[in-house]
Amino acid sequence: MSHSQVPISRGTLLKLRERLTVARRGKEVLEMRREQLVHELLSSVEKIEGRSALDDKLYELFGEAVKLYLTLGEYGYRSMCSALKAPKVETLIESLYGVKVPKVKVVKEPNFSTISDPEVRRLASALYEALKEAISLAAEEEKVRALANHLEYVNRVTNSLEKIIIPQLEELIRYVSERLEEEMVSEFTALKKLKRLREHGELPGS
User: Fold this and answer.
1) 72-91 confidence digits (pLDDT tens)
2) CA distance 142 to 146
């Protein structure tokens, strides 16, 4: 809003000061939100850093699975695997600092006792644990993406308040305050002059 569009009155000054208070409070809240988001992001990034170790584990387990497949043959391997039912999982959406993030919950665990061969049972259990870790990391990566996008938005709004809106309001308040003071001085001077004219009988009808 340009200075020429601002009505010069005490009511305007009061409204501008109220808007400035709200803008400053909003900036404080957003700064606190930003700190929370950064803390949460750093925590999630630390978890994701274990991705390379998980890749190595999966590669090793895949090699063991290939060996078992060659040892048991296709029919024997498939027969062992078919005895195991897949786990049931649910994907939930949670709100974290106002950001929607995914969370994966295992509803029903697989029953590995249905596999008769102990080596296949051990491998299936290890693969399942690695799979759960991979799912958890995938959800964590999506959480990081959502938090990072929201952090970018919070930064934009915070910077807008700090560098544009708050300085503009402060400048308008200064401008209106100075104009009001000028008007008060002008009115006071005019009243003094009027009083002096009356005292000297220089006003018509005096």
Assistant:
1) 888 887 887 787 888 888 88
2) 6
Cβ atoms of residues 146 and 99 within 8 Å: yes
Pairing of strands 99-108, 88-96: antiparallel
What was the pLDDT predicted at 37? 92
Of 8-12, 35-39, 59-63, 142-146, least confident by mean pLDDT is 8-12
**Domains, the chain, with CATH or none:** 8-190 (1.10.287.3240)
From CA 100, how far away is CA 40, in angstroms rounded? 13
Query: What three-state secondary structure class fits 107?
Result: strand
DSSP class of 7: -
Q: Are 178 and 186 in contact (CB under 8 A)?
A: no
Beta-bridge partner residues of 92: 103
Please give the average per-residue pLDDT across 116-134, as a whole number. Answer: 88
CA-to-CA distance for 143 and 149, rounded, in angstroms? 10
* Amino acid letter for position 129: E
3-state secondary structure of 100: strand
Cα distance between residue 190 and residue 79, in whole Å: 105
